[in-house]
Write a structure and sequence with these properties.
single chain; mainly alpha; two-stranded antiparallel sheet; 5 helices; 51% helix; globular; metal-binding
Length: 77
Protein backbone atom coordinates (compact mmCIF):
# COMPACT_ATOMS: atom_id res chain seq x y z
CA UNK A 1 0.00 0.00 0.00
CA UNK A 2 1.27 3.46 -0.86
CA UNK A 3 2.02 5.84 1.98
CA UNK A 4 3.32 8.74 -0.12
CA UNK A 5 1.54 9.23 -3.44
CA UNK A 6 3.77 12.15 -4.40
CA UNK A 7 6.90 9.98 -4.53
CA UNK A 8 5.38 6.49 -4.78
CA UNK A 9 6.69 5.33 -1.39
CA UNK A 10 5.10 2.20 0.06
CA UNK A 11 4.56 1.06 3.64
CA UNK A 12 7.19 -1.61 3.04
CA UNK A 13 9.76 1.02 2.04
CA UNK A 14 9.00 3.12 5.12
CA UNK A 15 9.33 0.04 7.33
CA UNK A 16 12.67 -0.83 5.66
CA UNK A 17 14.03 2.66 6.37
CA UNK A 18 12.78 2.36 9.96
CA UNK A 19 14.56 -0.99 10.28
CA UNK A 20 17.70 0.71 8.96
CA UNK A 21 17.50 3.31 11.73
CA UNK A 22 15.06 6.05 10.74
CA UNK A 23 13.16 7.00 13.90
CA UNK A 24 11.23 10.10 12.83
CA UNK A 25 9.25 11.29 9.82
CA UNK A 26 12.08 13.75 9.12
CA UNK A 27 14.58 10.88 8.93
CA UNK A 28 12.22 8.96 6.64
CA UNK A 29 12.03 12.08 4.45
CA UNK A 30 15.82 12.25 4.33
CA UNK A 31 15.96 8.63 3.24
CA UNK A 32 13.26 8.64 0.54
CA UNK A 33 11.57 12.08 0.28
CA UNK A 34 8.25 10.80 1.67
CA UNK A 35 6.45 13.64 3.42
CA UNK A 36 8.38 16.44 1.73
CA UNK A 37 5.86 17.49 -0.92
CA UNK A 38 2.22 17.85 0.10
CA UNK A 39 2.73 16.42 3.61
CA UNK A 40 -0.48 14.40 3.69
CA UNK A 41 1.45 11.19 4.44
CA UNK A 42 3.32 12.44 7.52
CA UNK A 43 0.69 11.19 9.97
CA UNK A 44 0.69 7.76 8.33
CA UNK A 45 4.49 7.67 8.54
CA UNK A 46 4.26 8.58 12.24
CA UNK A 47 1.78 5.74 12.75
CA UNK A 48 4.08 3.27 10.99
CA UNK A 49 7.02 4.36 13.12
CA UNK A 50 4.97 4.03 16.29
CA UNK A 51 6.15 5.15 19.68
CA UNK A 52 8.59 2.32 20.32
CA UNK A 53 12.20 2.73 21.18
CA UNK A 54 14.60 3.66 18.46
CA UNK A 55 17.93 1.84 18.50
CA UNK A 56 19.67 4.95 17.21
CA UNK A 57 17.75 7.57 19.20
CA UNK A 58 20.80 8.40 21.30
CA UNK A 59 22.80 9.28 18.17
CA UNK A 60 19.93 11.37 16.82
CA UNK A 61 19.61 13.22 20.13
CA UNK A 62 23.32 14.08 19.92
CA UNK A 63 22.87 15.40 16.38
CA UNK A 64 24.99 12.63 14.91
CA UNK A 65 24.05 11.00 11.58
CA UNK A 66 21.99 7.84 12.00
CA UNK A 67 21.18 7.04 8.40
CA UNK A 68 24.67 6.67 6.95
CA UNK A 69 23.93 3.22 5.55
CA UNK A 70 20.64 4.32 3.97
CA UNK A 71 22.26 7.37 2.38
CA UNK A 72 25.07 5.21 1.01
CA UNK A 73 22.57 2.73 -0.42
CA UNK A 74 20.54 5.46 -2.08
CA UNK A 75 23.65 6.88 -3.76
CA UNK A 76 24.55 3.48 -5.14
CA UNK A 77 21.09 2.96 -6.65
Amino acid sequence: MYVCSCFGITEQQVKKHADDGACTPRQIASACKAGTDCGSCVRRIQALLGRGTCPRRELADQGKPVLAEVTTLNRAA
